[in-house]
């Protein structure tokens, strides 16, 4: 396997090959166990532009950039000139003029990155773009850290039974993971309320009742109920946390039914006692905090690939 991998941008997992995914996992593991070192021979300046709320992804990218020796230039959307009508494209041209070479962006618009990387002849932005999450589209760094966490646990993907549970239609994490895990040979199940399921997911796995598979799965991947994306929806008006938890959540009873070596994952943030019984967040099968730890190392591997793709920091 070739360990040096290069991308111009990192906006989606959809077109990654299995070899590329395994190389990124290998490199992230190298950063984690300190066998992989990257020395920048020229300064690199990065900005993290988070137009939607974030704790994990924003801080994790910041940490990964600093560990790689990148200079992180603060950017606060709430005090930026975006609020005076400046477009995202013009904001990036501005940051580029100031010396920023790489931007990590989270934005509520699906595919926002297309207009930043597929330029017209009269556009000259050269910024490397990494997607920190776009609407209900993609969340490639979360997906890659999830894949790393699963691979660490099982050493393979082929034939693993993985249930993705909950608010699937709103979830960019689910969309990225179903694409990647399906390519990698995992057997996917989807569970949760019917109104948060879209038949277009049928091509990746089976729509099931969680109770029919709970004792067979290797991984329960729980998703946050994204109330902020359901405003005005009649199901949102009738939402009951207790009822959701009983029907679709990881209750103590379901936890006891899981296989001995099965694991539970959640991208965070958790709604305690909704997706997850509160006492299980730190339980033996929970990999919630391992996912976050792995996120720093996986983002280092992803950033390294983008630095190489753009010949930044003296990397080829
Ligand atoms: N998983 C995730 O994206 O969390 P944040 O919204 O806190 O970044």
From TrEMBL:
Binding positions (L-aspartate): 84, 172, 224
Gene: pyrB
PROSITE patterns noted in UniProt: CARBAMOYLTRANSFERASE
PANTHER family xrefs: ASPARTATE CARBAMOYLTRANSFERASE, ORNITHINE CARBAMOYLTRANSFERASE, MITOCHONDRIAL
The reaction(s) this protein catalyses: carbamoyl phosphate + L-aspartate = N-carbamoyl-L-aspartate + phosphate + H(+)
Recorded GO MF terms: amino acid binding; aspartate carbamoyltransferase activity
Keywords per UniProt: Pyrimidine biosynthesis, Transferase
Aspartate/ornithine carbamoyltransferase carbamoyl-P binding domain residues: 9-152
Subunit structure: Heterododecamer (2C3:3R2) of six catalytic PyrB chains organized as two trimers (C3), and six regulatory PyrI chains organized as three dimers (R2).
One Pfam family from the record: OTCace
Aspartate/ornithine carbamoyltransferase Asp/Orn-binding domain sequence ranges: 158-304
Functional note: Catalyzes the condensation of carbamoyl phosphate and aspartate to form carbamoyl aspartate and inorganic phosphate, the committed step in the de novo pyrimidine nucleotide biosynthesis pathway.
Annotated source species: Ligilactobacillus aviarius
Domain of life: Bacteria
HAMAP family documented for this protein: Asp_carb_tr (MF_00001)
Name of the protein in question: Aspartate carbamoyltransferase
